[in-house]
Amino acid sequence: MRNHPDTVDDFFRLNARFLQRAALPYLKFSQFSSVVECALLAASLDHRDANASVMKFFFDLLHAARNKEDRDDFEVRSSIVAKVRKDFGAKIVDSLIRAVVFSLPSYTFHDVGDVLFELMLLERSNVCVWMEASLMALHDSQPGGPHQIGQNGDHANLTAKVTRDQLVKFHKEVTSSEQPSSVIGALKTFSRLWR
């Protein structure tokens, strides 16, 4: 994906368009879970356009459970997205947090924050649990922690020792946010702890 970010950009723009224009047939597509898995891998791309398209895909996917409530397909669409959240919610949170810490520049945090906030509008209590698990895994991967392996099996390049109190503060700031801008600000502050 790193070698062909323009293709990633085009692919996820197309997928986001399907979600916007023909959500139900698209969500019922037999290979849809493979597209979500691909998006999880692409979430850490530091290419501006490709990352924006991946985040737009995630946002539109989650938002499909809340928008156009007056349509006949709303209940079915909402239940399919609920299953996607059940199957992939923890992976989405972990992938986004790791991307913020390990690879993404701060200009991408606006889109990441929008995705996390949209997920919290649907599953705030689960996001709390998922984020806690992700943060504890990050904490343990720091130098001196029980595991020092990064997301792709590489040794993590973590120079700072982020304390448990800092993790708790970040967790609280994100999960108690009432607007996306608060999540974005928390992501920016949190990412600086690791760099």
Describe the sheet with the most strands: none
Overall outline = globular
Output the structural class.
Answer: mainly alpha
Please count the helical segments: 8
Can you tell me the residue ranges where pLDDT is under 50 for at least 5 consecutive residues?
145-159
Element order: H for helix, E for strand = HHHHHHHH
The overall average pLDDT, rounded, is 87
Query: How large, in whole angstroms, is the Cα Rg?
Result: 17 Å
In angstroms, what separates the terminal alpha carbons?
Answer: 24 Å
Q: How many runs of DSSP E, i.e. beta strands?
A: 0
Number of domains: 1
Plain-language structure description:
This protein is an all-alpha fold and 195 residues long. The protein has one domain (5-193). 70% of the residues lie in helices and 0% in strands. The protein contains eight helices and no strands. Helix 5 runs parallel beside helix 8.
Ordered list of secondary-structure elements with their pairings:
Layout: H1 5-21, H2 23-27, H3 32-42, H4 48-63, H5 74-102, H6 109-140, H7 164-175, H8 180-193
Helix pairs in contact: 1-4, 3-5, 4-6, 5-6, 5-8, 6-7, 6-8, 7-8
